[in-house]
Amino acid sequence: MAQNLYGPGVRMGNWNEDVYLEEELMKDFLAKKDKGQLLIQRNRRLKENLLRPMQLSISEDGYIRYGDKVMLVNPDHPETEADLFLGGDLSLCMTPDEIKAHLSDELEVPCGLSAAQTKIPVGRNTFTVLCTAGEVTGQVLRYGQNFRLGIAGGFADRMANAKLLINHCHTNRGLVAHRHLFLSTYFGKEAEVAVHTYLDSHRVEKPKNHWMLVTGNPGKDSSTMLDLSKRPAEDTRVLEHVAEPEARNAPGAHACTRPM
C-alpha cells in the first residue's frame, strides 16, 4: 500500500523561487518606505497640503488688496429648482483628479474645481489675489484693474465679503455653483462648479451666480467673516468680476472688476 512519504516540513514546487520573490518584494517595499514613495505616504502628504489650515487676510476697511488671501464663497440661498441640493455656504475648492492624486504627492495643474460645504480656510480653498503688470503688493484692488487668483491665493471698491459676479471672458457666462448636481470627489460629495448665467424674471443674476471674496475675522471668536452673525457689506451692491478662460481649471486666473 502506497504511503505519503512527505512530512509537514518538506517543501514542494518552486519553493526556492517563491522565497526569493518574497524577499525581493520586501526589499522593494522597505526601499520605497525609506524614500517616502509608498502610495499611502504620497496620499497622506497630498492631503496634508490641501487640508492644511490657512490664515485669511483681515480687511478692517472693507478693501481687497493685492496679496490678500481670501476664500471665494457662494452664499447660502434657498434652492427652488431642485428637491435635492447642498445647502449652506459653498466655498470654491481645488479638486485634483483622484487617480493622479494617488500617484503623486504634488498637486498637478490644471485641475478641476468644485464647491464644498466648508467655511474653514484650508489649502484647497484659500486663494491669493496676485498682481499683474503695473500693480504692487498691498495696493487696493479697484474696478477695471486686472488681477490673478492664485492658489497657495470709497464704497465702490470695497469688495471684501461683498457679493460678486464672476464671468468667463470669452463667453461672458457667470461662474455658478450647481448645488443639485453632485460630484464624488477625492474629498467626498461636493457640488459641481460650471460657467452659466441664470437670470430671474427681472433679468438679474440668481443667487447661484453670487460669490464672495471672504477675508479673515479680526476677532478671535471665529476664523472668517462668514462666522459673524452679520456680514459687513452684505447689503452693498453686487460687483462684477470678470475672469479669464483658464479660471475653470488653472490655479491662477486673470480677472478685472467693474460696478454693475
From TrEMBL:
It holds the Pfam family CFAP161. GO terms for cellular component: motile cilium. GO terms for biological process: cilium assembly. InterPro entries: CF161. This is Cilia and flagella associated protein 161. The gene is CFAP161.
